[in-house]
Amino acid sequence: MNNLQCIVCGNKQDLKFELQHKVYQCASCDLYTSDATFDLSFQSSLEEDSREIGLKKLRLQNFQSIIKALEENYFKDKKNIKGLEIGSGNGWWLEVCRDNKIDCLGIEPENTFADYYRKNDLNVVMGFYPNPATDLTEGYDFIIFNDVFEHISDLKSLLLSIKKDLKKDGLLIINIPMSNGFFYRTASMLYYLKIKSFLDRLWQFNFHSPHINYFNPKNLPAYLNKYDFKLLQNFRLETLDFSSIRERILADNKMSKAKAYTISSLLLLIKPIIQNSSADIRVFFFRQ
Ligand SMILES: [Zn+2]
């Protein structure tokens, strides 16, 4: 395969990066697409650092911002709303919903966290969406993806199912990494200095579920528009908790103390640059 056709604008995507998988870029809308496929064996780790405390705190803060937007802008009365999260992974979104008294069902193909769901009373159906067990006759008030949308190859059939499963005025919420963010742009520069590991890591090519697409704040809404989803709002989510960054990097046993110290000092030094750059993760709210 020498080129791909861009799912957003239909133009040809040209080879951009030769990593563990090839990455193609659309010259017109800037969508990046890899030739990776989803490995269905489910043998490797879901997310090796997912139990890490620093990371969990940051993720929960991001989820809290999404809940705040839901409550303030869309659901004044949250008692009767029903949500669906596609790809619940470690279950953190469902925990935040439970704590905020929002009824949200999860669907997850991997059983890595099945015990955790049971112990924490989280309502998760095991399987691939669209699974009949997630059908709701009256439709969902919202369907959310947290770090999942970028992993899906057949977005067309996914979005057609979502249109059916959402209420007529239901919300589609997509929390997703961005190709115009500080870390993606830095990793792209390093690629040309022959350092490929950072881009491989961002694309998660060393995990069993790599990214298929890397969107930006313009081409994601353009793509969703094709399925009649209108963008309502989007905002930045945080990728780094600067208050614990040194401890987190020093806690990494695979890295020497000197190297960890250098990296954390460098990140703290460029903190204003990172915070003033385009966000590495954003959340988008659409209405169909
Ligand atoms: Zn394009």
Protein described:
The chain is an alpha/beta fold. It has a single domain (4-287), classed as Rossmann fold (3-Layer(aba) Sandwich). The protein contains 10 helices and 12 strands. The chain has helices at 53-74, 92-99, 114-119, 155-165, 182-192, 197-202, 219-225, 245-250, 257-269, 271-276; strands at residues 4-5, 12-18, 22-26, 32-34, 82-86, 103-108, 124-126, 140-146, 166-177, 213-214, 230-237, 281-287. The strands form 2 sheets. Strands 7-6-5-8-9-12-11 form a 7-stranded mixed β-sheet, sandwiched between helices. It has a 5-stranded antiparallel β-sheet with strand order 1-2-3-4-10, with no helix packed on it. A hairpin with a 5-residue loop joins strand 3 and strand 4. It is globular, with a radius of gyration of 19 Å. It starts with a strand and ends with a strand. The relative contact order is 0.16. Bound molecules: zinc ion. The site of zinc ion has 8 residues, from loops.
User: Shape from CA axes?
Assistant: globular
Estimate the mean pLDDT confidence: 90
State the separation between the terminal residues, measured CA to CA.
34 Å
Beta-strand residue fraction: 15-25%
Associated small molecules: zinc ion
How many structural domains in the coordinates? 1
Tell me which CATH architecture applies here.
3-Layer(aba) Sandwich
| Largest pleated sheet | 7 strands, mixed
Structural class: alpha/beta
Output the CATH homologous superfamily. Vaccinia Virus protein VP39
Give, in spatial order, the strands making up the sheet with the most strands.
7-6-5-8-9-12-11
